[in-house]
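SEVERITY: medium
COMPONENT: batch folding queue
REPORTER: lab tech (J.R.)

DESCRIPTION
The queue accepted two submissions in a row. Attaching both inputs and their returned structure tokens so the on-call engineer can compare them side by side.

ATTACHMENT 1
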Amino acid sequence: MARRNPTLPCFLDFEASSLRPRSYPIEVAWSLGDGSVESHLIDPRPVPEWNDWDPVAETEIHHITPGQLHSEGRTPTWVAGRMNSVLQGLRLYTDAPDWDGFWLQVLFQAAGMEPAFTLAAAQALWFTELAGGPDCNRRLHELDQQARARSAGPRHRAANDVRHFIELYRLCRKE
């Protein structure tokens, strides 16, 4: 009999217009327990107050242009609705719960909705899998580097970062 793969934790990542207080989400990705990843660009045009754009972030970090958001992005209402329909009742882990929680709130406020899922810190999950210990931080850093090497695609694109989180979790489980 074939051995079934255990269900993976779900992960979430946002990319944003800037790291300033008036920033807004421009891309979101999440994974499900089977390891599948879904990602969407977010078009800011339906929300007039979403106008804080950092050109340095565009050219040096996420490489997403306003033109891409306009041509390929979905409305905040559509993205929030999709997230709720797919993620209802789930706990999603993020490496930056403060930032991602902020952008989640900004997205759902713009959509006039409440999230039907919760966020948690991925670090706690990874440390739990490594079973703590005095060199846990060092081991996590080493495994993070291995996971990054195994993950395809550039950093600071939401789907690639979520795939990285999945790979890091898998490596922590093997420790």
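ATTACHMENT 2
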Amino acid sequence: MRVFITGGTGLIGSAVVAELLGNGHTVLALTRSDASAQVAEAAGAEPIRGGLADLDVLRAGVTKADGVIHLAFANDFSSPEALANAVAEESAALAALGEALVGSDRPFVTCSGTPAVPGRASTEADSIPAEGPLGGRGRAVMGVLDLASRGVRSSAVRLPRTVHNNGAGGFAGVLTGIARRTGVSGYPADGTQRWPAVHAHDAAVLFRLALERAEAGTAWHAVADEGDPVRDIAEVIGRRLDLPVESVPPQTYGALGAIFAADQPSSSAHTRQVLGWEPKHPSLLADLENIQP
């Protein structure tokens, strides 16, 4: 299959590209710069120059592909305004990609986050939030899944709070970065809230399975670790960096403060049973041992 991918040179995207190429697919990768184009070429993908805001480039990429995987996001959490702009850019890109696929019966795999459900681990049957700081992303993903009624084999891979590789990535990576800057390995509230996680290479396998097998309008959970207490995550970071571990105010995390403080375990039992997905790479706590002082 010839696959057009956005975000193909990031931590998750590079793993997805390798997984696709290793299983006989060819890859067209959206690249924003000469440097990212060189990374894509070195990985074995064909670069298509442009960004998420270049809607004509996105449409052109769809015309060259048998399927689409979307992973790109600005990841600017510096302020509520910056986050809103990133969400709006992605929403417009998803709409353009989806419209270009209508009536083709081609697969369109997008990504979202696992939802938080009070009192239990969330499942694939739970809805993702359509309100709050990231509510726009939820609405855009639901729009992608609704394309199932318009001749698109659309699906969504829901990613946990931390997608990691070699000790880096996701919410845990944010904690590590803040710890290096402030000299404290912090956690919000009492640290008993749980964050799910998955290794990037395990997530990549699920993206490929969704591309190849997922029925239209379905959602899947890329969850290997159902939920590690944030305090446990901070303790590994603190030990690796030789820093004190303590609770810090939610505003330490800016626009993500409320999300960081929420208990949000998640299950992937349905995904494993239906798609035969089985994570094989190290857990988050084990992978964090790769953090270099």
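NOTES FROM REPORTER
The chain has two domains: 2-162+198-225, 164-196+227-265+282-290.
No errors were logged for either attachment.
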